[in-house]
């Protein structure tokens, strides 16, 4: 029992990490493309490139970590989700392929190429949207068992307002998270024009974010009442999340303490995300697969947790190093060269 | 519709993805070591040519890494999408090395980012060299862990089946299977070898096109030396692999060699064509006793023939061609690099001749063909099993009907990625020839 909880918490934490760093990445790619197309390239691109270049690969590993980890800790997810997720999963992979390739081609080949930047921005926005379908599927109601094999009911999936609400939320969340982060980052570089622009984007996306998030909770009340009820029991987590959102927007509105705003934004999503996850417990795929049924054997669980701790002890110092060298390095951020 | 059978379609899509990914993965494992060697020699000899070599290789390397990361992510997820039943079972036993592979990859990704973006931040090249150690270590470690997983599929171990239930799972025992030592070392060493010959081919191409710059000559000589050393290692380990296969997967070896009847003092067949119905080989070169030597190290040893195995458990006989391709190219490249090394030392003029350089140019892609052929040998030779002796590919594949369509989508993606890589790499190096980089370097600027 303990091990299952550790397993799912670790995975949920990494998925959360991916959502934050991934959103910054995907949103930045979109803003980059948008700025090139609207001729504001000179304002934004430099800042985005400087942040993105050293960390994009690290971002991707968070994603790999999650799906390797979930198959490791909960092998049965491979069976259920693997079978039904073939088409949406493949489309997500193709978007990822387009994105990764155009990133490389633009950054290392020909900087400022409109076509590359456009493909990069668009695929980055659609990728999380196509992945978020898995959240809809896990709510139940779209998977049926035929001849002993799970099948996905595409018609029900695409006709459901829940699907589209989650897709829209994922896109808006990407743009909001990214804009808040980049406001802070641009401010650090001392670039006032870019800061003002990102601040504007952050404020634009703040309202739709809360509207769609509430819409999903409303959808759930009719789609999956037991889940809705558990969300309701955890109302305080979502209330905290809402307050954090208000304070974040207030800070950005008054152009105060962008660093605090970024942290509040992260915690806002953390509360909502972990609240949602806790409410989903104990189901991985409602109603077929629970955490307890799908868990791996004792020996594997223990060795995975040991590997995880050893891996983290290698990873955390390295992550600290990359942050120190790039993100939190005054000279690098401001685009100055520094000799050590 | 195309590929109506999901099992066949899943096999084809996995073949497609892996065949494409292996090109980038091999470069990803081998090139960091070459960059490290060049940087090290540059520091030791205080020769900026080698430092620039490391720098220029790294610049091209990041493009291949980007595509390699993408295709690697694709195959990682495709395993669950296309082989859900296999992953459900395997997840219970073999998840540990998969998990560790991600950490190795994480580690490499972090330090590669730092290495590439701190070129102009360190005056001391030795500091910069230190960053390359985790990159090369991480690259090799991920090859190690992922090949451990593949070894497990060839020689499952570390668990028991009782009444169809998996019990006594032992993740550590599952990692150290009988197939692991030869497989892992062969994969790593051939990746080093292929990367060295690829970089040698680039240098040879420049010289063949008429450049006579010292830089290209140094690069060619260094990579031919390194390539030779690793090709010898590859051949030695390849021989051990043969002995392993003879012992543990005799049907695979018999299929490699079209060896139908069990006999002592078995001959080795080189090339040839097979008449499948009559089990007759035509045009093949017979080397007496060589198969017995390859399999057991004894010319009179008995080698089990294919006829001893039930028909539905024998691999497709096409693997013979793959096997011959791999071995022939391996031997050819070993000879080519050995003659070059000695030729330069002893001052033979023909190794500097245009035709010899052309052979080296062709050698680069050929080595990659050998890598592909080797993987096809190993993987097709494992048919019909996905987990040898436990689960066939038919039992493992998805039941989804849309795999054929996905195949087409991914094929288009890989064509775009492959063409894009070639296009971008050519552009980068066309716009930045070594002369221009050297000039920038001498002026104290960043040759990027």
Automatic annotation (TrEMBL), chain A:
Superkingdom per UniProt: Bacteria
Keyword Membrane annotated: yes
Record field: transmembrane: 6-34, 55-74, 80-105, 117-144, 164-186, 198-218, 234-253, 260-279, 299-327
One Gene Ontology cellular component annotation held by this UniProt entry: plasma membrane
Location within or outside the cell: Cell membrane
Pfam family, one: Cyt_bd_oxida_II
Name of the protein in its database record: Cytochrome d ubiquinol oxidase subunit II
TrEMBL record, chain B:
Keyword Lipid metabolism: no
GO MF entry, a single one: heme binding
Keywords from the named record: Cell membrane, Electron transport, Heme, Iron, Membrane, Metal-binding, Transmembrane, Transmembrane helix, Transport
Subcellular location, record wording: Cell membrane
Keyword DNA damage attached: no
Gene Ontology biological process: aerobic electron transport chain
Listed GO CC annotations: cytochrome complex; plasma membrane
Pfam families: Cyt_bd_oxida_I (PF01654)
Membrane topology: Multi-pass membrane protein
Family indicated by similarity: Belongs to the cytochrome ubiquinol oxidase subunit 1 family.
Protein name in UniProt: Cytochrome ubiquinol oxidase subunit I
């Amino acid at each position: 029992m303990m091990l299952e909880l550790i397993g799912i918490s670790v995975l949920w934490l990494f998925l959360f990490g991916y959502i934050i760093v991934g959103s910054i990445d995907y949103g930045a790619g979109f803003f980059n493309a948008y700025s090139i197309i609207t001729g504001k390239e000179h304002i934004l691109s430099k800042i985005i490139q400087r942040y993105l270049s050293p960390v994009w690969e690290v971002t991707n590993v968070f994603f790999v970590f999650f799906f390797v980890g979930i198959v490791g800790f909960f092998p049965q997810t491979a069976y259920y989700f693997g079978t039904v997720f073939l088409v949406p999963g493949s489309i997500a992979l193709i978007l990822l392929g387009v994105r990764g390739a155009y990133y490389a081609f633009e950054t290392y080949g020909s900087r400022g190429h409109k076509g590359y930047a456009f493909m990069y921005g668009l695929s980055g926005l659609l990728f999380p949207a196509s992945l978020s379908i898995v959240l809809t599927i896990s709510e139940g109601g779209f998977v049926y068992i035929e001849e002993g094999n799970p099948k996905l009911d595409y018609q029900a999936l695409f006709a459901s307002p829940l699907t589209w609400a989650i897709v829209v939320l994922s896109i808006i969340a990407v743009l909001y998270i990214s804009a808040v982060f980049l406001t802070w980052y641009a401010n650090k570089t001392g670039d006032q024009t870019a800061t003002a622009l990102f601040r504007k984007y952050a404020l634009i996306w703040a309202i739709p974010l809360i509207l769609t998030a509430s819409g999903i909770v409303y959808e759930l009340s009719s789609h999956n009442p037991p889940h809705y009820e558990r969300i309701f029991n955890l109302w305080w987590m979502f209330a905290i999340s809402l307050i954090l959102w208000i304070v974040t927007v207030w800070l950005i509105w008054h152009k105060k303490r962008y660093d605090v705003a970024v942290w509040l934004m992260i915690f806002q999503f953390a509360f909502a995300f972990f609240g949602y996850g806790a409410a989903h417990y104990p189901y991985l795929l409602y109603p077929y697969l629970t955490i307890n049924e799908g868990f791996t054997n004792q020996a594997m669980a223990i060795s995975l947790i040991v590997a995880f701790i050893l891996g983290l002890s290698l990873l955390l110092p390295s992550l600290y190093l990359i942050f120190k060298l790039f993100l939190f390095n005054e000279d690098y951020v401001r685009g100055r060269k520094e000799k050590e | 519709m195309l590929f109506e059978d999901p099992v066949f379609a899943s096999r084809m899509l996995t073949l497609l993805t892996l065949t494409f990914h292996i090109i980038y993965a091999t470069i990803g494992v081998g090139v960091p070591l070459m960059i490290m060697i060049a940087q090290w020699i540059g520091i030791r000899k205080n020769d900026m040519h080698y430092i620039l070599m490391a720098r220029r290789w790294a610049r091209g390397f990041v493009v291949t890494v980007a595509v390699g990361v993408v295709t690697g992510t694709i195959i990682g997820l495709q395993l669950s999408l296309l082989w859900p039943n296999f992953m459900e079972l395997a997840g219970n036993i073999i998840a540990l090395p998969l998990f560790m592979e991600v950490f190795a990859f994480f580690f490499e990704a972090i330090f590669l980012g730092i290495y590439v973006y701190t070129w102009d931040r360190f005056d001391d090249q030795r500091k910069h060299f230190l960053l390359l150690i985790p990159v090369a270590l991480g690259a090799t470690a991920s090859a190690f862990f992922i090949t451990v997983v593949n070894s497990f599929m060839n020689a499952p171990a570390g668990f028991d089946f009782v009444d169809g239930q998996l019990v006594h799972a032992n993740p550590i025992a599952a990692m150290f299977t009988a197939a692991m030592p030869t497989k892992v070392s062969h994969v790593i060493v051939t990746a080093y070898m292929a990367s060295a010959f690829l970089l040698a081919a680039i240098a040879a191409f420049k010289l063949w096109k008429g450049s006579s710059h010292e830089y290209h000559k140094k690069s060619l000589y260094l990579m031919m030396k390194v390539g030779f050393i690793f090709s010898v290692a590859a051949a030695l380990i390849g021989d051990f692999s043969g002995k392993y296969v003879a012992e543990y997967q005799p049907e695979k070896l018999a299929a490699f060699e079209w060896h139908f009847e069990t006999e002592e003092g078995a001959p080795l067949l080189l090339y040839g064509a097979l008449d499948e119905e009559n089990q007759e080989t035509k045009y093949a070169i017979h080397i007496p006793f060589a198969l017995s030597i390859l399999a057991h190290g004894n010319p009179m040893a008995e080698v089990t023939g294919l006829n001893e195995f039930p028909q539905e458990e024998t691999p497709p006989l096409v693997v013979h061609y793959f096997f011959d391709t791999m071995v022939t190219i391996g031997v050819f490249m070993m000879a080519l690099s050995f003659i070059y090394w000695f030729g330069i030392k002893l001052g033979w003029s023909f190794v500097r001749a245009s035709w010899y350089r052309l052979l080296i140019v062709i050698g680069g892609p050929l080595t990659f063909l050998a890598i592909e052929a080797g993987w096809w040998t190993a993987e097709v030779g494992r048919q019909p099993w996905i987990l040898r002796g436990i689960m066939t590919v038919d039992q493992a594949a998805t039941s989804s009907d849309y795999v054929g369509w996905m195949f087409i989508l991914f094929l288009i993606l890989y064509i775009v990625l492959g063409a894009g890589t070639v296009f971008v790499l050519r552009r980068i190096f066309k716009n930045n020839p070594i002369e221009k980089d050297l000039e920038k370097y001498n002026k104290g600027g960043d040759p990027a």
